[in-house]
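Second opinion, please. Pick holes in both lines of this record:
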Amino acid sequence: MTISTAPSTMRPSGHVLQDPPAPELDDQEPVTTTVARLRSAFATGRTRDFAWRERQLRAMLAMLENEEAAIAAALGEDLDRFPGAAWSADIATTRIEVRDALKNFRKWARRERHLLPLSTWPSRGFIEREPLGTVLVIGAWNFPFYLTLGPLVGALAAGNAVVVKPSELAPASSRTIKDLVAKYLDTDAVAVVEGGVEVTQELLAQGFDHCLFTGSPQTGKKIMEAAAATLTPVTLELGGKSPAIVTASANLDVAARRIIWSKLANSGQTCITTDYVIVERSVQKEFLEKLLATVEAFTEERPDGQPVINRRQFGRLTGLLSADHGGRIIAGGGADDQRCLIDFTVVLDPAHESPLMSEEIFGPILPVITVDSLDDAIASVKRGPKPLAAYLFSNSRSDHERVVRDVSAGGVVINHALLHCMSPQLPFGGVGNSGMGSYHGKWGFDTFSHLKSVVRAWARPDIPLLYPPHTEAKARIVRKVL
């Protein structure tokens, strides 16, 4: 059975997709000037003011509401994304972050008071959250607005000046972000810098008070290495091979629909998409029948194939399929190299050591691995690096607890996929090879804040126990107190 999917009407049939051109940078001031200008703005204290923070967040909300057409057009040009998907994947998700920050940022910034041990008496302690300073946000191409503007929300709510570096691989989105930030936000404290690898390196060389990067583990290592030269702390939102485990007790219809839905989002070019499925052998045949039927139903609007961002990614993905992966293609397998379209492809039981199972796929290819039990599924996941997400489909509460306890992943979703990324009430981030640090909601605010410990002591009484001379009597009292 061969299933294929299609381009939207935004990409005319027969159009040859070219790799994106480098953005025009003639109107861009030097990086050193931009960073110095933002540092000067932060030094005035203007970004610390709660009224300033609220104005920026409300301006972001207005931008997302007023400029939906421009954002959708940019996403259509870069990613061949339908307008409805542009709204749900990039606009609505960012609006959720902005609204949550507007509602809560003053509460997040409150002093956090703590009782101190008797050894510090007479004193009281509290944590003061202060903005870090001038920070850098490096966005990703696959959700260029959400993964660039989403971190910006936390940085602004925390009171920082921010340099935003969109991905050059989505040039229309990058230019739109630059234009909209200039139109809606305080450009003395928020600046968009466009460009490729060289520009990113130049930015990191300036030294920032924090850098948040979203991208691949390979690039994340380079970002971390470059940031180390200036001791810039980093939050790395990376990726990995996120599994979906389907047990014998699962609702197989629901599992098939939700797994394929997650994999079709942005043609599988999503860091938390279902990278591969692990299914128990006792329900494998029934599950595959439902999975393939779902693929056929869900890909009717794209009968020619799933669009891939550029030729480099297209070549990498088709190379994974053409390599000796040891599995059997049971759906799809075709590709259109003129338009960079790849059929949604299901590969049954590829070899664990094959590139298809050792590399993050990041495209419309879904391996399905058969195991005998949940124990075998968990062991299979634990053989590889820790993933950004792990999904479990099971109606057994004990299965839920097993996976939550035994599978180390950035996040776990039970009986669904992707949902943990959509809630600012939960931290989002990776672990191990899938990233470090977290953001969204309060966690984004704290990522871009310094949690300053403050102890306030009183001048009286001034107890002499710690002062010279250090007598035996004093030592005995101190030992009892401590």
Summary: The longest strand covers residues 123-131.
